[in-house]
Amino acid sequence: xxxxxxxxxxxxxxxxxxxxxxxxxxxxxxxxxxxxxxxxxxxxxxxxxxxxxxxxxxxxxxxxxxxxxxxxxxxxxxxxxxxxxxxxxxxxxxxxxxxxxxxxxxxxxxxxxxxxxxxxxxxxxxxxxxxxxxxxxxxxxxxxxxxxxxxxxxxxxxxxxxxxxxxxxxxxxxxxxxxxxxxxxxxxxxxxxx
Length: 194
Prior knowledge:
The chain has 194 residues and is α+β, with helices and mostly antiparallel strands.
């Protein structure tokens, strides 16, 4: 901005405006994530308990991904999967995981949901480069990115998966990366009736 104001005649003000808007959105995401984690840390988040259809949340996300990217989304593995939980938190959990997968996908995402014993399982997979699953636990820590060399534009804030961990824990579950032949897959387990 300083450079733009010092040389106003050679400044592309549309580009400056787009940059400011983009950075403002990025800061909004960071501040929102930090506030959410702070409220969680102080046990100030009230968790609602109602029936939530995780399959519906995945179908909503598949429509969003298709509308905003060139990625294809395979939902053939999505089965009816209802849990008792906080709808806003569960929606945020799935959105964070999908946003993360979109960032690294080459051309496709794959969603699945099903029951395994007393848990509802959600998986989100991408066909990107993949990660070392044996080292993936650290990715659920705050401010950790899979590749520190990535730019702010493509690498996220390092808060999304830590928020996912807090949400699944509040719902009696867990989150982990699982080995796949190609790309990356995250598995979320939510206790069906907490």
